[in-house]
């Protein structure tokens, strides 16, 4: 890895420390210290799309302070390819995960202002050509949900955890089928803006000076409902948990005329993604038991599935 970074970015590193956050099994991330003391986040991934680097570069150059800009390579590119995966650098943000610390009222307001600033940016033609209109992950969710339902209905579980997983899934099979049906056809498109597509608190870092939104791998060109669904309930501790938090976010964001049809679609698509991917990870790992617990929360009375189908 150090040799790659020196060759591709012209930076010599003295330490590389592997870090793990979130559920992105397609990515590896390191905290790296260069000769001279500067720190960077190194990401090596096969997930998401290349639009992520173009979007973050554009937003940072436009003056959106809460979006870290990628470091360019020695040839001026935004990433390189190593062993079939993209290698990129950004400045290391020495901040706390908002999912671990929560946000104060002022920070919720700042978060709303940051997302509003992202959504308000003009979209140049080059980004319109690069950004997908839908999260690419969503395209494979109906098939994955079908495979999982078939497995749980017809195969004996391999261990006690999978037995509990199968019981949980089959008890909610009707809800899963309803999510698949609701996401079969995208709604009529509304005005499209740059969307992060995953702006929960696990992707927010807080420092004394600034709140940052990171991990733009799934950025899309979509209506605002794609992002704002995360602020309207069903996300547990990864979104606002009180009406005061939600009010503070929208005080920073400003007025938002949400289309109910689009909101239902994007909520349903996210709910199906959470159900299918957490169930899959409860089978394959890592963190099988934790994945099952998260799935049960998503399917629970306060989870996103209920919100999406209500």
From TrEMBL:
Transmembrane parts of this sequence: none
Source taxon at top rank: Bacteria
Aminoglycoside phosphotransferase domain ranges (all copies): 17-260
Matches recorded under Pfam families: APH
Protein name according to UniProt: Aminoglycoside O-phosphotransferase APH(9)-Ia
């Amino acid at each position: 890895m150090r040799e790659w970074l020196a060759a591709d970015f012209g930076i010599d590193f003295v330490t590389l420390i592997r870090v793990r956050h979130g559920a992105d099994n397609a990515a590896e991330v390191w905290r790296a210290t260069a000769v001279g003391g500067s720190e960077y986040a190194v990401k090596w991934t096969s997930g998401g799309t290349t639009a992520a680097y173009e979007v973050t570069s554009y937003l940072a150059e436009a003056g959106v302070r809460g979006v870290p800009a990628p470091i360019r390579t020695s040839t001026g590119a935004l990433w390189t390819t190593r062993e079939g995966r993209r290698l990129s650098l950004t400045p290391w943000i020495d901040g706390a995960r908002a999912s671990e610390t929560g946000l104060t009222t002022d920070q919720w307001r700042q978060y709303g202002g940051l997302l509003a600033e992202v959504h308000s940016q003009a979209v140049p033609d080059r980004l319109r050509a690069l950004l997908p209109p839908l999260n690419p992950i969503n395209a494979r969710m109906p098939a994955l949900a079908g495979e999982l339902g078939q497995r749980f209905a017809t195969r004996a579980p391999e261990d006690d955890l999978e037995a509990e997983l199968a019981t949980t899934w089959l008890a909610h099979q009707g809800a899963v089928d309803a999510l698949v049906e609701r996401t079969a056809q995208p709604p009529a498109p509304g005005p499209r803006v740059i969307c992060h597509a995953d702006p929960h608190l696990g992707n927010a870092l807080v420092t004394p000076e600034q709140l940052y939104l990171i991990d733009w791998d799934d950025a899309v060109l979509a209506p605002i409902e794609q992002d704002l669904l995360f602020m309207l309930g069903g996300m547990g501790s990864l979104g606002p948990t009180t009406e005061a938090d939600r009010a503070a976010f929208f005080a920073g964001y400003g007025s938002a005329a949400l289309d109910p049809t689009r909101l239902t679609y994007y909520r349903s698509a996210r709910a199906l993604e959470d159900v299918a991917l957490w169930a899959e990870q409860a089978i394959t790992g890592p963190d099988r038991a934790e994945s099952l617990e998260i799935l049960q929360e998503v399917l629970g009375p306060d989870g996103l599935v209920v919100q999406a189908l209500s």
